[in-house]
Specification:
4 helices; two-stranded antiparallel ribbon; 88 residues; 2 domains; Glutaredoxin; mainly alpha
Length: 88
């Protein structure tokens, strides 16, 4: 573990999803909620937020570019159906 942030996993079971879904920003999981604030969604955005908060995000724009490039390539490789949405 690189960061030292406290977090609580809140697994959602199928029975509770119908009630929770309209409360999420986009009706999808995962979401992150910090100190009872607004829910944040979109996996890569949440990961960037956590990295910035924990001081694990690049300080230089050049390094940030490479981090973003690698994460985008990995994400579109993992989810090939998204490639058409991102690059077409």
């Amino acid at each position: 573990m690189y960061g030292k942030c406290d977090w609580k996993d809140n697994p959602i079971n199928f029975q509770n999803w119908d009630a929770l879904k309209p409360k999420t920003p986009s009706g999808v999981l995962p979401v992150l909620q910090v100190n009872g604030g607004a829910m944040m969604d979109q996996t890569l955005c949440v990961l960037r937020f956590i990295c910035m908060k924990e001081g694990m995000y690049s300080k230089s724009s050049k390094d940030a570019y490479w981090e973003e490039k690698v994460s985008s390539v990995i994400y579109t490789t993992m989810y090939p159906d998204l490639k058409a949405l991102v690059y077409d």
